[in-house]
Amino acid sequence: MEEGPRYLKDREGYFSEEQRERTKKRSKEMEAQTSSVLKKQRNRAKAMSYFDEVHKYGGARYLELKEFHEKGGKIVGTLCVMVPLELINAAGAESVRMCSGYYEPVHPANELLGDAGLCPMVKSTLGSKMVSSNPLVDLIDLVAGPATCDGKMKLAEILEDWVPVVMMNIPRVKVGDTSSRLWVKELIYLKNRLEDLTGRRITKSAIRKEIRKWNEANQYWMELLEIRKSEKTPISGRDAMLVVQATQLDRIDRWNRKMKELLEELRVMQKKGVRAGEEGASRILLAGSPMMYPNFKIPTIIEESGGTIVTDELCTGFRLMADPVIMDGMSKKELYEAMAERYFFPCTCPCFSPNDERLRRMKESIRVYGIEGVVFHTLRGCHLNNLEATKIELALREMKIPMVKIESEYDEGDIEQVRTRVEAFVEMIKARREFRLMKGGTAP
Amino acid sequence: MKENFKGRNIRPYRFLVQLMALGFILGHLFGIPPFGTYPLFRRIFLPNASCRYITSAPTSCYYYQLQDGFTQGYGDGYVNVIIMVLVVLLLIMLLGRAWCSWLCPFGLVQEGFMKLRELTGLPPYKLKWSQRVLLRRIKYAILFLTVLISIPIGINALGLGGCQSTLSLPFCQVCPAKGFFTVSQQVLGIEPWSTTLPWIAIVSLMLFTVSAFFIDMAFCRICPMGGVMAIMSRWSLLWLRKDPSKCTKCRICLRVCPLDHDRVYEDMEADDVAGEDCTLCGRCVEMCPEEGCLSFNYGPFRLKSSRKPRQVGLAGMVHRYRQKHKGDGGK
Amino acid sequence: MSGDRGPYDLGIDVGAISIKLLLLRDTTPAANKVVNTSMEPGKLSELSMKELLKEEGLERKDIGYVVATGQGRRSLEFADLARTDITTFARGAHFLDPDVDVVVDIGGHGIRVMRMGEMGIISDFRTNDKCSIGTGCFMDTMAHALEVDIDDVGERSLHSKLAEHVNASCTIFAESEVVSLIAKGKRTDDILAGLHQMVARRIVALVNSTQSKGKVMVCGGVARNEGVVRELGKTMNREMVVPEMPHMVGALGAALMAPRPRERKLLMKEEERKGEIEVKRTTFLDRLLRWRS
């Protein structure tokens, strides 16, 4: 990589010390506030406290990673769910998801980029790197950035000023068998870069070991989804999102252990009929743009307004642990194919065209989980999701499922408007349910 | 080391059944008296490669009977052929194309080659889409050619009687199955080394050996018996069912299919995705990670469905034991 | 339990610009009141409620349920229920005219369009809370820029012969365009007419986005403005009704949402015939129901 001028990094000096401190402080406060709101939920399982700790700003996980880094360990940042974490772990490195959910770093990014109608998550990630407001992000040695959506693609390029970035091509049109070959080749390229980084060869048996661990994680996540199907859901949607996003930050074998404890506790709660959420809460499916912790504005509003998120169609929710890697054959090529295709083919990200899988999965979830309404949240500037929303809404109208579209930003100013809309939506669903019951039908 | 997924295994059972089928054919090696010599048994023909050239095998493959029927049957109006077709139709209705992957000894041989390749760590050569389509068409071409050549040989008036001795069974001369079984029996000492094979059979055997090592189920793709079975398989009682609402399009079914049969992955509307080329080996049902998406059905009954993978069993337990006692002080 | 409760229901619509109160007895509105927001809404609502009770000669215990709606619905501690204005406007509109398909609420801070389903339950709704053109706040700002009293705005625009085309994307830019038009010497009435046209276009676009073709009811504070109503009537390609007191529809709907058995009675009667309810109404309600299009 040639050492050219680093335009953006040189602008770092433009931000005053006071601004940096303020961003850090506000990020910390935001995370603490979100965490305290989550802790105040009623009937929360005790095993959730571990997952709160994982996400804590500057908490124990950060200290652990810092120690690991100081001892020479390498930390790889990922920008998307499509990066195979098994491969990173097989190289002996730890992985950290860089997508930022903090609101405050958007301001430094706005100063640099102009107040463009960009994806606020991209702006926040960039901002947090520029003013070093997230200590975890500073430990990263290499970034793996797949070119999924335009925002992420350019973000990967911009981050090159600070950290070496492996940009990976994703074939965005999934037809024919040529499309997966490109992605497999990109993975092999990533493997070579990881080997250069850590100095360790990635062997087939190492990959297989990691795949087994992640398959176990997938199995536990599926069990959690089964628990959420019940009428009295013992875990709220926000907690489930918290739990699954912890896989991107934490060590997977420890996560597996803690998840097992959580599952046992939830099963006990389920048997007793304890529910998280109000009596008669409507069952909502949340879909749309990614929502990284602590950007839990929309799910919090939904769950405080009388709805329960029983399932979701988000890449920061269900999709993170959605499929297992099914290995077949002993050769290296087949192993990489198995790993690559697990992330690629069933993925319902709207960056793929055509994206029939997402609508099909939503319809199936609606039927299986007994969903009464869909909340579709898009971030400002998320064209891919905005363009899909109309098609999804019309398809859902045929199924007589109402959908509300909410566009939002990394901003706390529109909380009241969003709350009004969500409350109206929940009232609508409840009224329809009562009307159906009155007419002699059954609740869905 | 493969995953030990509970309740998802089909392959070991299939291997057992294949061994039993092979045992039936090679019974005399295990001390069972060679009942293949009894004239009654020698007339059994099956829609798989239970080759006549295996000494004292009780059966012959029906393709042998097809060629025989066409070259000898001109006199009685090919009545043998018609009877044979009806019998085969009945057999296919009962078991579909499972004759190929569950009961064919040559299929077992090819799977042996696949296993050999796996042990060397080489990847398989996956055919491109155009190549697959071509190979699928070739079997019909072979079938057509066989019939075309057999019929004139049988008609005495055409004066090709001289060819009768060498070309009475035109396909069997080049069939790699015959070549393979002959050579193996010579190696095992059952058949004398004096049995010679025509040069063309040796060429086809070598071609087969090389391609079976790299391409999965190389001969099954062009097997002309498969052509006949493909036409008849739409009436089979054993079929492969897909529930499209559960399909996540993960493409695992296509990746593990030894015959690269893409209808299972592509088709999102139909119930029956077996099609004419699927040999019902059950690999896709074994590996599909969605509960109840793919299943083997017999008539209206569901025999075996795909299940969600669960890491239990010895491998999983051992793995977890090792993790627990690794000495890492986690939280 | 409703036997212990008083016979009246109070609906309070705590809006951005004004607070509307409506007393309902069974299905008959008994009294109503409008108060401009001058101080903290919670205290103001309580004071207004006491004044209203005194005017009607009633006591606090006569009120069975208090249902709050509007932007400030959560700031009332004495309310029994809080419902969003989207739901209450739809309910109120349905009560006034069960044939209505689309309800438009042009409020102080936002415009809401509700598509009606069965029994006064909405099936879809849209809001434009990002742009304030057409809202009461917008009209206030324009009136202030033109130095006209807000109550005269509609009347004056009707006198215009040729409307001045105003084309702006946001309230502040519209205000600056209006100021420049004044500087060019254009007539106030013409400018007002142009503004009303722009507002009507916006509202009609929002209504059309629900993809329905049925009857529209226009309510909310701004619907008192005859200029807006006339422009809407010209631009909207369908049957349109405006109730006599459009700003009270929210409070009416809120009072109707009190959980009384009359809900069931009303809903059951819907099955047979619409309009029978009118027979039981008093003269006050006749005034409320006088349509104008």
CATH topology of the largest domain in chain C: Nucleotidyltransferase, domain 5
CATH superfamily of the largest domain in chain C: ATPase, nucleotide binding domain
Which CATH-level-2 architecture of the domain at 7-45 and 65-202 in chain A? 3-Layer(aba) Sandwich
| CATH topology value of the domain at 7-45 and 65-202 in chain A | Rossmann fold
H/E element order of chain A: HHHHEHEHHHEHEHHHHEHEHHEHEH
> What is the element string of chain C, with H for helices and E for strands?
EEEHEEHEEEHHHHEHEHHH
Q: Catalogue the unreliable spans of chain A.
A: none
Helical element count of chain A?
18
Indicate the radius of gyration of chain C in whole angstroms.
19 Å
| Sheet having the most strands of chain C | 5 strands, mixed
Q: According to CATH, what is the class of the largest domain in chain C?
A: Alpha Beta
Q: Name the beta content range of chain A.
A: 5-15%
Mean pLDDT of chain C: 80
Largest sheet of chain A: 4 strands, parallel
Helix content of chain C: 25-40%
Write a brief caption for the model.
The complex is a heterotrimer of chains A (444), B (331) and C (293). Chain A has helices at 7-10, 17-39, 48-55, 60-70, 85-90, 106-113, 120-130, 135-138, 150-159, 178-198, 204-228, 237-245, 252-272, 297-304, 332-344, 356-369, 383-398, 415-438, and strands spanning 75-78, 94-97, 142-146, 165-168, 282-288, 307-313, 373-379, 403-408. Chain A has 444 residues and is α/β, with parallel strands linked by helices.
Describe the model:
The complex is a heterotrimer of chains A (444), B (331) and C (293). Chain A has 444 residues and is an alpha/beta fold. Chain A has helices spanning 7-10, 17-39, 48-55, 60-70, 85-90, 106-113, 120-130, 135-138, 150-159, 178-198, 204-228, 237-245, 252-272, 297-304, 332-344, 356-369, 383-398, 415-438, and strands at residues 75-78, 94-97, 142-146, 165-168, 282-288, 307-313, 373-379, 403-408. The model of chain A has no long low-confidence stretch (mean pLDDT 90). Helices cover 52% and strands 6% of the residues of chain B. In chain B, a hairpin with a 2-residue loop joins β4 and β5 (301-305). In chain B, 40% of the residues are buried. Chain C is α/β, with parallel strands linked by helices. Chain C has two domains: 1-97 and 248-293, 2-Layer Sandwich (Nucleotidyltransferase, domain 5); 98-242, 2-Layer Sandwich (Nucleotidyltransferase, domain 5), CATH 3.30.420.40. In chain C, α2 (85-96) crosses α8 (249-256), α3 runs parallel beside α5 and α6 (188-208) packs across α7. Chains in contact: A-B, A-C. At the A-C interface, α18 of A face α2 and β8 of C.
